[in-house]
Amino acid sequence: MKMNRQELEAARILINLALQEDVGSGDITTNNLIPAGLRKQADMRAKADGVIAGLEVAEMVFRHFDPGLEWNPQVNDGEEVKKGEVIVRFSADYRALLTGERTALNFLQRLSGIATIAHMYTTLLVGSQAKILDTRKTLPGFRLLDKYAVRAGGAVNHRIGLYDMVMIKDNHIAVAGGIPKAVEAVRRGIEKNILVEVETTCLREVEEAVESGADIIMLDNMDDETMRKAVTLIGRRAKTEASGNMTPERIAGTAATGVDYISVGALTHSVKALDISQTIYQ
Q: Is the pTM value of this prediction over 0.85?
């Protein structure tokens, strides 16, 4: 799996910020101890089972310091690895290997952590047509990279931001005077190809959302029995998204209600970095 142009540009911007805060005017330890021009071999290994994401970002970090970097991934983004498995073998200027190590690992460990938990959630859907969705609960500035890692783990991206899809929530509905009026008003102001999703909390609101012509209906904080009734009521006239406290223990039962999507904020807001180490060979 490869990053697209927008994701690579986002990575470039973040790398520059990361190196500015970490390296600043220079790595005063490495530059005073390591001779210039000395090249070394290195590798990165998984120290836990997981799914890899962010290899291109790590490569960009090291290439910033050494354009002559030789980079040989042993796996691709989106592939599972076992503890102890080599992820990438590479060689570069010794100073580059030391100065870039922490920043490269920070990116690779975070993105791999997201891919790993996304993969875990998707495996809970075996036998179901439902898909796991991410949310906007990403690290500020990391939106595109976090969502790339979600895809690497086999889950699906929801809207990128506030600009590419309509999400009508309770506060919007209250101001508009109800779901029908909210949908009607927003339809007048957007292009026809933009999807409209409506948040609902009960079957009455579900019926209003269906009759209003919503493209996607969020079933927010409903129990599985209510969601099952909602799916029947909607009858494929709109896509359905289950949301709210979607823990691993709930996924199978929620998927069995027939919903199309299950959104999980924990994919990106509660990231546990995948443990990865770098070794430089002397």
A: yes
